Amino acid sequence: MKILYLDLGMGAAGDMLTAALLDSMNEKDKAEAIKEISLLGIPDVTFDVEKSVKCGITGTHVSVKVHGIDEAEGLHEHHGHEHEHDHNSDHGHSHEHDNHEHHHHHSNLQKINDIVDSLKVSEQIKTDVKSIYNILAEAEGLVHGKPVTEIHFHEVGTMDAVADITAACILIRKIGADKIIASPIHVGSGQVKCAHGILPVPAPATAYILREIPMYSTEIKGELCTPTGAAILKYFVNEYGAMPAMTSDSIGYGMGYKDFERANCVRAMVGTTQNEAMRFNEETDKDNALHSDGKTAEDRAIHSDEKTAEDRTIHSDEKTARNSSDNNDTDLIIELRCNIDDMTGEEMGFALERLMEAGARDVFTTPITMKKNRPGILLTVICSTTDKEKMVREIFKNTTTIGIRETICNRYILERTEEALNTPLGQVREKRVTGYGVERSKLEYDDLASIARNTGKSLQEVRNLIK
């Protein structure tokens, strides 16, 4: 299993995460990634990538410039939402406003989405960026007591934040980790001054985003984790804790602006792990407490009829199921289920789309018979443990259900790899899976379908010609 581990001992900001991910790449991939993020199509925005040294460690520093001005010289990204800012953050984003003035125009979430839709990136990246902005807007709305639709972003803060978030999304997708794990987040301590007054660290929006995520503070004063950094982590990270037993293939250091006695950086480690019993945090262990017979009272039933062939989910009630067979892996997932009998097919279809866009591993429905012999739908959502609360909110928001059931499951996984094949008809990706004595492969449907459309051949003809 390919793992991306993020060491957040000095917090996280969008630019530091981007820099760490870039620094972890080989020179060829890094050059291609820099070219891609430089051609996003965000008006008047440029990226500067340079080497930086902190406490004797060499890494990469990324700065975003709007109209040629470094983001550190304008608004701090944290205060790109609703208010101006005049403090110095611990990542060195200094704000000396005596020498220049900012006349701020405002952008609401719809305008942000319009900007994202105009970017020269894939639909997957656009979905990622919009979802992260939704996390930011929800946090700001809660803090300011306003609906998400009324949250506004300062235009200067908008441009550099869109650039930071989009770049991070592109790089994470390029690395293609099967699982992203992060250390507990160092948020800093003390207070920060902004136009609204003195705020505690972590700032209210950051604290809201990081709820249920392990974080801590030390004697270091200032804001180490920004809302943008927190939102990126909230969206992508599957698990928080110590680094698992893994073989590291590459390491990257993303440097902040300021200097401390500690190296001001995010460290990204990319590697592989096998035979790893995936860790359970204390909350999960408590919620999944076992009776003497090794089963929870709620989960004694085996839901064999609700599994998807694609996920091959195995519902185990015993902790010993955490340990996988040799050369194979497991991970912990959550299955959320609810019964619905009063939604149209169109409404249900829309709900499934929204749940997948929000980050569900899989979503499917099963026909059932409900009370009073009414035909109904069993909605099943499979997600990571860290996405559980987000999925619960999305289910309640997009369906008519008034109750959701939860099951904690061990998922047994075949190791997946992908290779690009050069064929007479063009390049086609081949996906391979191995493990548990199984080895098989299949050609990527999207590539076959694209060739079929371009050549006028049927899908089967294309598949036979390539084979």
From TrEMBL:
GO terms for biological process: protein maturation. It catalyses: Ni(II)-pyridinium-3,5-bisthiocarboxylate mononucleotide = pyridinium-3,5-bisthiocarboxylate mononucleotide + Ni(2+). Its EC number is 4.99.1.12. Residues 76-108, 277-327 are annotated as: Disordered. GO terms for molecular function: lyase activity; nickel cation binding. InterPro entries: Ni_insertion. Pfam families: Ni_insertion (PF01969). The keyword Transport does not apply. Residues 76-101, 279-321 have a biased composition (Basic and acidic residues). The keyword Lyase applies. Keywords: Lyase, Nickel. Belongs to the LarC family. NCBIfam families: nickel pincer cofactor biosynthesis protein LarC. Involved in the biosynthesis of a nickel-pincer cofactor ((SCS)Ni(II) pincer complex). Binds Ni(2+), and functions in nickel delivery to pyridinium-3,5-bisthiocarboxylic acid mononucleotide (P2TMN), to form the mature cofactor. Is thus probably required for the activation of nickel-pincer cofactor-dependent enzymes. This is Pyridinium-3,5-bisthiocarboxylic acid mononucleotide nickel insertion protein. It comes from Butyrivibrio fibrisolvens DSM 3071.
